[in-house]
Amino acid sequence: MIRFEPRENVSSTYAVLVPVIAGIAALALAAIPISAAGADVQGAFIAMAKGAFGSPFAISELLARATPLILTGLAAAVAFKAKLWNIGAEGQLYVGALAAVAVGSGAISAPPYIMIPLIIAAGMMAGGTLMLVPTLLKTKLGADEVVTTLLLNFVVLLFVQMMLEGPMKDPMGMGWPQSEPISAAATLPKMFPRLRVHWGLVIALVSALIVFIIMTRSVWGFEIRATGENVSAARHAGIPVTATYVKVGLVSGALAGLAGVSEVAGLKGYLTADLSPGFGYTGIVVAMLAGLSPLGVVAAAIFIAAVFVGADSMSRAMSVSNYIADLIVALSLLCVLVSGLFVRFKMRFVRPKLPKKKEAEEF
Amino acid sequence: MEYVDILTSASFWAAAIRIATPLIFGVLGALICERAGVLNLGIEGIFVVGAMTGWMAVWIGADLWTGVAVAAGCGAVFGLLHGILTVPLGLSQHVSGLGITLFATAVSYFTYRTALPNVSSPPRIEAFQPLDVPGLSDLPFIGPALFQQTPMTFLALALVLMVGFVLYRTPLGLAIRAVGDNPAAVEAQGLSVYGLRIGAVMVGSALMALGGAFLTMSAFDAFFFGMINGRGWICIALVVFASWRPGKALLGAVLFGAFDAFQIRLQNEVGGAIPSQVFLMIPYVLSIVALVIVARKADYPRALLQPYFRGQR
Questions:
Q1: A136 inside 8 A of chain B by CB
Q2: Which residue in chain B has the smallest CA separation from A35?
Q3: Which of A303, B15, B34, B220 sits in a 20 to 30 Å window from A218, CA-based?
Q4: Tens digit of each residue's pLDDT (9 = 90 or more) over A80-123
Q5: What is the pTM of this model?
Q6: How many Cβ atoms from other residues are within 10 Å of residue A36's Cβ?
Q7: Chain B window 276-305: which residues touch A at a Cβ cutoff of 8 Å?
Q8: pLDDT tens digits for range B67-113
Q9: B212, B202, B254, B192: which is closest to B12 by C-alpha?
């Protein structure tokens, strides 16, 4: 019989080891579908590694893909730390991008040092405000935020489509439902010539650092953690739980909104309804892989981005659908959940109870 | 008034019930899981699994009811996975459920893409046809509205009765409800908390998969990416609205179907004056509203979301 016993102290080695093991396990499990698709497993993994790390171009693609994932990962990590289940990062990302386009595609003309902070502020405010709705529905009316944030994603996507086919449609867009391009002054510059990685990456890294400092070094971070660990105890201890939820919701939504700004102003240049291939949902996996640690989010986002970029490049070369990436991402979430058990608990193999007499004979 | 004409037309109610059918399956499935104390956010992905596997079984050559059984079986497998992760291992039901949704969706899409690498339009199957019940189908109004549905709709309606009967009239149902309210008491009766919970999640997941299968085998005759489109999440909202009761679940689903059918007709009436997206938003907004209305007085199963460990009170 196996018994799980809670560990007294969780060593930090385990905290790092667990997601690494989970990632490796997910990749190993992915060998099954890859071979089922009739491909050479070893060759597929080599192609993936090359596609993700094999050239400066590959690494630039990897970092460009990691940028929104760091931000949506932070959005999920902050919210989940308070056990505020914000599953709406996808929608918040889109309103962030929409706000950035509304402000940054010619409505205002100013030099970059004004435009860039402006679109960042607009996107973060839009994302935060959107998350305010389910947060208030939770705190004031008791409506489960999981369902409301999930459903709002669909509402927002339809709203974005409506805006792109209506008021915000680019008249020069040849009839495609897309917004006017972000003006040159509001564009986040590329970091290196001829590579797609842009300054959004730096914004994401700085955000991770700021969130880390808030979570570990401020009273506010303490309040968030206390609320997440035990709401009633936190309330009893005089922590303003409702205010904490609202603040967490605002920050989480703002981070997801920032991801939208970075994508639209750093990578795409204009808004379409397929801006995000599920970055909001993948952010949840990133946050869980990171054990909700803000700095861990950066590493986890790079891993997940490598899976996506590597799988894209591999599927171009071999007969394996690039849905293999989604499969690996989902598997890493399930694997990290299970392996997380080994951090919080130690597994003890317990002998089934034997009659006393027999036990005495044995020893 | 033309709106009254809409509401009194048999074809409107036929559409309402057709739209409600996958939701009836989904809400019943979610209801069974939650009554046993397990939130199953895998629902959205399990819908995809049911839609894909049921369709693919028929596409390969199985007959329709075998396809339905395959879908239910595949749904139950993902239910088993969710059950193992959340019941004996006691992992977060929220995160595990979302993981199941991501995993189930990815497995379905990958399998579909691998089986059909380059198809320009999704291949079609011979889907379920509307039943023609002799006598009943010719009744005025009720005939076309209720008795010209496909067999899976009747299966859904029968399942409402069955789930209601099992939950409220059998010892098994009592045990399932008890395990979602007070698992320690169930264990004190010598019953297995783990067995009941995992079993309930598996059965519930099988029903969710049937909701998906209805879409590819009755409502449409092909599988599309993104066809589930939040229906699973809507079911999670509706189950709260239905206060975890099968009868109210049916009512909620049909009400929802009626709103959705009305919205489609309204869209035709109004034409291009209002963007179509406004109408398409209505189902999601409605679900949020339904959830908010009942949220304060919702009587959640008391042990919902709480893992139970043997011998630990």
A1: no
A2: B114
A3: A303
A4: 999 999 999 999 999 999 999 999 988 888 999 999 999 999 99
A5: 0.93
A6: 12
A7: 277-278, 280-281, 284-285, 287-288, 291-292, 295-296, 298
A8: 999 999 999 999 999 999 999 999 999 999 999 999 999 999 999 99
A9: B254
Interface probe with A: pick from B84, B288, B289, B312, most Cβ of A within 10 Å: B288
In a domain, A126, yes or no: yes
B228 touches chain A (CB under 8 A): no
Domain that includes residue A213, residue range: 68-293
Integer Cα distance of A229 and A348 in angstroms: 26
Q: Chain A: give the shortest CA distance to residue B117, in Å.
A: 8
| Integer Cα distance of A267 and B201 in angstroms | 43
Which chain A residue is nearest to residue B299, measuring alpha carbons?
Answer: A142
- Rounded distance, CA A343 to CA B81, Å? 21
In this complex, do B280 and A330 lie within 8 Å of one another by their Cβ atoms? no
A230 conformational bin, left if phi > 0, alpha if psi -120 to 50, beta if neither: beta
Q: What is the DSSP string of A293-343?
A: -HHHHHHHHHHHHHHHHHHHHHHHHSS--THHHHHHHHHHHHHHHHHHHHH
Asked if residue A324 belongs to a domain, the reply is: no
d(CA A145, CA A151): 10
Q: Are A151 and B229 in contact (CB < 8 Å)? A: no
Residue type at B170?
T
User: Is position A11 within any domain?
Assistant: no
Quote ipTM for the complex. Answer: 0.91
Under 8 Å between Cβ of B270 and B4: no
* CA–CA dist A3, A9 (Å, integer): 18
Which residues numbered 57-96 in A keep a CB inside 8 Å of some CB on B? 85, 87
User: Number of folded domains in chain A?
Assistant: 1
End-to-end, the C-alpha distance of chain A in Å comes to 19
Q: By the CB < 8 Å criterion, does A343 face chain B?
A: no
Q: A336 in contact with B at a CB cutoff of 8 Å?
A: no
Tokens of B116: 């059909």
